[in-house]
């Protein structure tokens, strides 16, 4: 099922909806298409729309509560753009900065993308103990970033540049 990203009127990512729901919002003049699949259109009786990838609500919606971004290994790799937090090379694993055996948790601030070699070398030690330095501190993605992270890689790569996940 194709998902469409919904932006608030302020351009802040809000949610993802099914393509069908996105088309309904546009047809009801509640949203406009900000970014469409190139060359694909929704055609029905008297409808002819570009297939929306990103829509933006016409009216600003107040969001009283934003769910925090749920941690995931995949999310950490995406957040760090598959670059090792210790050497900058391609990362395929997730390292716990404070090892789990020492009480380190599965949290955004305690995990970084890591290449297999560095992960193996660091083993069950903190970076200080292993004599390794993080190139930059891990951070917690905002709920908006998390939404973008939750999109599939192909969908994310197709987003317009101004919506890209910050490095
Ligand atoms: Zn590395």
TrEMBL record:
Keywords: Endonuclease, Hydrolase, Nuclease. GO terms for molecular function: endonuclease activity; nucleic acid binding; zinc ion binding. Residues 71-120 form the HNH nuclease domain. The keyword Hydrolase applies. InterPro entries: HNH, HNH_nuc, NA-targeting_endonuclease. It comes from the Bacteria. This is HNH endonuclease. It comes from Streptomyces violaceusniger (strain Tu 4113).
């Amino acid at each position: 099922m194709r998902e469409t990203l919904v932006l608030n009127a302020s351009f802040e990512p809000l949610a993802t909806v099914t393509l069908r729901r996105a088309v309904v919002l546009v047809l009801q003049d509640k949203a406009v298409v900000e970014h469409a699949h190139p060359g694909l259109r929704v055609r029905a009786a008297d409808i002819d729309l570009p297939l929306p990838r990103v829509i933006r609500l016409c009216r600003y919606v107040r969001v009283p509560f934003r769910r925090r971004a749920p941690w995931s290994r995949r999310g950490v790799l995406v957040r760090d753009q598959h670059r090792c937090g210790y050497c900058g090379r391609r990362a395929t694993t997730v390292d716990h900065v404070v090892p789990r055996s020492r009480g380190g948790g599965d949290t955004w601030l305690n995990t970084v993308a890591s290449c297999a070699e560095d992960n193996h070398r660091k083993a069950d030690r903190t970076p200080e103990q292993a004599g390794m330095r993080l190139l930059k501190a891990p951070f917690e993605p905002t709920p908006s970033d998390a939404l973008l992270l939750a999109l599939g890689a192909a969908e994310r790569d197709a987003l317009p540049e101004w919506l890209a996940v910050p490095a």
